[in-house]
Specification:
The chain contains 17 helices and eleven strands. The chain is an alpha+beta fold. It has two domains: about 200 residues, L-fuculose-1-phosphate Aldolase; about 140 residues, Class II aldolase/adducin N-terminal domain (L-fuculose-1-phosphate Aldolase, 3-Layer(aba) Sandwich), CATH 3.40.225.10. A hairpin with a 3-residue loop joins strand 6 and strand 7. Helix 9 crosses helix 14. The two termini are about 20 Å apart. Bound molecules: zinc ion. Zinc ion binds next to loops.
Length: about 375
């Protein structure tokens, strides 16, 4: 299979932060009974032909006809084994759990992404209504379902219903609190569909607040205060062997005015946000943040409640500190939290932010976390 078209398409989206952050998303191309899906450990922005794993479409889809364990943990294990067995001879790459969704589209190309603009609609109170109304006829819209076999089976059912209705297959699949799948037989149509979704949504949302120029001060907070807070954070987190990374931009700043304005960011929007930026940020006041003892108290209370260190420490009116095992992880936490802030901002056009439900958060955090992390890794 000549993978040039999907390589070019993947790189184009992968290099654009409006579409892809921290390795999220995946792409595929079909030819006859073969599907090539982006493999484990590969970034879309720099992918080449070797970054795809080749599988038999018919073997992959046979998973919907076999009897599966009722226990979801065991079921996902069997499904993963089934997917690995569907690889063509000599293929060693690891397909992600989202491979089944790619396989279900009767189109040559599929590009699955989690763009902030689109998630602004999908992580809003009126997500399902808005997606149905704005993209009537061409898009399937699903409420949140845990990634994996259950989601794939739900998608299979709505695609089958559509097929039986005699209408043309869906080219767009919107997943609440997750992201979008776009499918087409040509790379140009994929691009055109994303352009059209973006144009439709841009006409609905408020543009992000402008970053101030070099001469304006982004924060009215004194430099000395920020330094004091930095020292306090360093002191309060030193015993945990973590690195921190400071970020302030206009969109995050908009939510940092008070604990009230911060509310839309108090709970996670998608599984990606949980994995990279933690389920819940810790919001502290400026005075708490300047005093190491008081900051320590806040962090201890957070740990007692959630059993882990926060990945985001948000300081009222100042900025956010990403905490991670290394600088890359700390920076990624800030990147994903900034993404969440954009989502919350855009969600204002659709009835306001709608975080994941508590049970779904817990599911990703505790029970499914290791497997999900593996699936995330396979999407890079
Ligand atoms: Zn996804």
């Amino acid at each position: 299979m000549d993978l040039d078209p999907i390589v070019r398409l993947s790189r184009r989206f992968g290099a654009d932060p409006d579409y892809v952050l921290a390795g999220g998303g995946n792409t595929s191309q079909k030819d006859g009974d073969t599907i090539a899906v982006k493999a484990s450990g590969v970034q879309l922005g720099t992918i080449d032909a070797a970054g795809f794993v080749h599988l038999s479409l018919s073997k992959l889809k046979a998973v919907f006809t076999i009897e599966l364990p009722s226990n979801s943990d065991e079921r996902e294990k069997v499904v993963l084994e089934h997917m690995l067995a569907a690889r063509l001879p000599g293929q060693t790459g690891r397909p992600s759990v989202e491979t089944l969704l790619h396989a279900l589209f009767p189109f040559r190309f599929v590009v699955h992404l989690h763009p902030a603009l689109i998630n602004g609609m999908l992580c809003a109170q009126k997500a399902l209504d808005a997606a149905q109304t704005l993209f009537e006829g061409e898009a399937a819209v699903l409420p949140y379902i845990t990634p994996g076999y259950t989601l794939a089976d739900a998608v299979r059912t709505i695609f089958e219903t559509r097929r039986q209705s005699g209408k043309s297959p869906y080219t767009i699949l919107f997943l609440q609190n997750h992201g979008v799948f776009v499918a087409a037989d040509s790379a140009e149509e994929i691009q055109a569909r994303y352009d059209s979704i973006f144009a439709t949504l841009r006409a609905k949302v408020r543009a992000l607040p402008q970053e101030p120029g070099v001469h304006d001060s982004l924060s009215s907070v004194e430099k000395a205060t920020i330094e004091k807070i930095r020292t306090a954070v360093e002191e309060a987190t030193s015993k945990f062997n973590v690195t921190f990374f400071f970020t302030l931009n206009s969109v995050v700043g908009h939510f940092l005015a008070s604990s009230g304005t911060f509310l839309p960011l108090a709970a996670p929007f998608t599984p990606d946000h949980i994995v990279y930026a933690g389920a819940w940020p810790l919001f502290v006041s400026q005075s708490q943040a300047q005093d190491p003892a008081s900051l320590q108290e806040q962090i201890d209370a957070y740990r007692a409640l959630h059993g882990e260190l926060p990945k985001i420490l948000a300081v009222q009116g100042v900025g956010i500190f990403g905490l991670g095992k290394d600088r890359a992880a700390a920076e990624r936490a800030c990147l994903l939290f900034t993404d969440a802030a954009k989502i919350a901002w855009y969600a204002g056009a659709f009835g306001g932010a709608h975080p994941m439900e508590s049970a779904d958060i817990e599911f990703i955090r505790n029970w499914e976390v290791e497997k999900y992390r593996a699936s995330i890794a396979s999407r890079r």
